[in-house]
Amino acid sequence: MNKQNHLEILPPRRSIIWDDNHIRFIDQRLLPKEYRIIETDDWQVVAEAIKGLGLRGAPLLGVAVALAVAATAVKTSGSSDKITTAIDGLRKTRPTAQNLFWALDRMSKIVEEAINTKLDQSLLTQSIVNEALEILEDDRNCCSYIGGNAQSLIKDNARILTICNTGFLATAGDGTALSAVYRAHDDGKNIHVYACETRPLLQGARLTAWELKQAGIPFTLIVDSAAASLAAKGEFDICIIGADRIAANGDTVNKIGSYQLALACEAHNIPFYVAAPTSTIDFKCMNGDYIPIEERPAEEVFNIRREIITPEGINIRNPAFDLVTADLISGIITENGVEKPLFM
Ligand code: MRU
For residues 98 and 252, what is the distance between their CA atoms, to the nearest angstrom? Predict the structure, then answer.
């Protein structure tokens, strides 16, 4: 069953919930113009939403695919074949975010064990649902811990620069880099956020601006290319970004534009932090060169509001992420604390 309900809303600072064996999530393709909830128990609806960035942000991708597998298990009464088809299909949606593969590996392990031990289908369903709910709950908790652990780095009157959207829209909880911002604001610190618009899909202009405005947190939106000159003029004190995948040596892949922020911070002695749960760390990946970088369609670049803005037939590249090497990172804020960027 799939139904779209245009009227309902999710609880405050929530982008995804599990309700009556269905997933309910905010369709981020439409924000900030329209707030629409999609309710589904069909993994293919989730897969399409992920490909089109209706669901996005590394931690949220992990939670969403886990819940999609859980919905499949319930709907098919624990058919291991159907669950495996869902897992395989969800693996092909986006290549970079570690959390997506981490969550699907957890699901695969349960199915494999069930097959090996000839587990009853209803028990398999229950295990899959429990695992997915644990992933959701753990992500919410990680967000809170990340927000708390970041506070030693955020002084009163801090001006914080960030990119993309790392808030409640990108996780099952309050976010990663934005969880730090929410917590500082909730604790009564006087802060100001500089949000990069994040071309080409404008996660900063559309989503971070929407979140911060709702929360009443003072912020200024800038075009991505303004960040370096703000750094040169000392207009922000700290940069905090999220991560899509962190290699064992601390190299971090995040939204395209993150690398130039790190270089600008390095040049102007501004601390540069990454905030992410440990589920974003790919311990098997020795360094960032092994992390696959998604290339997205050229039309995301040449099309602005359904208007073609370039001459026809030109060459366009649209890498969705870039690599910030560990030497440019002051520290990684996880649920465990602020760590040196090295996990080997
Ligand atoms: O392409 P997106 O919007 O999924 O990219 C998201 C990011 O790059 C985020 O910074 C990252 O996933 C961390 S979200 C807490």
Answer: 11
